[in-house]
Amino acid sequence: MPTGSRTTSHRRQHTWTLARWASPVILLALWQLGSAVGVISQEVLPAPSLIAEAGLELVRNGQLGDALRVSGARVLQGLLLGGVIGIGLGSAVGLSRWTEATVDPPMQMLRALPHLGLIPLFILWFGIGELPKVLLVALGVSFPLYLNTFSAIRQVDPKLFETAEVLGFSFRQRFANIILPSAAPQVLVGLRQSLGIAWLTLIVAEQINADKGIGYLINNARDFLRIDIIIFGLIVYALLGITTDAIVRSLERRALRYRS
């Protein structure tokens, strides 16, 4: 690429980056200004400065740290359990037509159920402790991973399997050298989808019979009419979702460097 074209492209990219950062800052400034002049009611939508003060209050008294540890543990446990189930079943169905005929129909029926609608049943079956919250997250997580793993394995180039057969590869060698590298990109996409569902599920699960976690902070703030803490809690959920997605994207870039 000529030097002039490269410079123009760099400047255009820099401009787009500035625009992406400037738009949220401008929105926050307008929000703060609207609150200051009384256009936006503090009883409906507190100013960003008040929300930030509420967040600092939670940080200083230690409530936010405790809530993050509890909520993070719930998501991690649900993600691990749902990941094992989703990737395990997806691999089995993708590798075997017989397993597809027996396992895929019930999985598709379960997928059609709104998993958040199962909360009353989960409470009756498993009580109101940690188990139903973790199981709800696991249930929501498992289906994107199952579908993406199943689809990724079925889309592996058949010529690669033919070559492996000619070379006398064992199943373990085929899985490690053909199936895993070929399926990894789509499985990682499924993981990103699952993380979004995990945090969404947790938001609902933690606001039902929870005595700790970010959802508990939000419920407690509702009882005391602390809209600033409620909004701060929702922002924390959003930041956690964005952060975990960025981590997976970073892992994806590292794991798939060979494609470059």
Key terms:
0% strand; mainly alpha; 260 residues; flat; 10 helices; single chain; MetI-like fold
What does this structure look like?
Belongs to the binding-protein-dependent transport system permease family. The chain has ten helices and no strands. It has 260 residues and is mostly helical. The chain has a single domain (50-259), classed as MetI-like (MetI-like fold, Orthogonal Bundle). It is flat, with a radius of gyration of 23 Å. It starts with a helix and ends in a 5-residue tail after the last helix.
What's the total helix number? 10
CATH architecture: Orthogonal Bundle
Number of domains: 1
CATH topology: MetI-like fold
Query: What is the percent of helical residues?
Result: over 70%
**Annotation, overall tally of beta strands:** 0
Helix-strand makeup class = mainly alpha
Secondary-structure element order, as H and E?
Answer: HHHHHHHHHH
Concise summary:
The chain is mainly α and 260 residues long. Helix content is 82%, strand content 0%. α3 runs antiparallel to α4, α3 runs antiparallel to α8 and α6 runs antiparallel to α8.
Secondary-structure topology with pairs:
Blueprint: H1 3-36, H2 48-60, H3 63-95, H4 97-112, H5 119-126, H6 130-154, H7 158-166, H8 171-205, H9 214-223, H10 227-255
Helix pairs in contact: 2-10, 3-4, 3-6, 3-8, 3-9, 5-6, 6-8, 8-10, 9-10
Transmembrane segments: 21-40, 75-98, 110-128, 229-248
Family: Belongs to the binding-protein-dependent transport system permease family.
Pfam family, one: BPD_transp_1
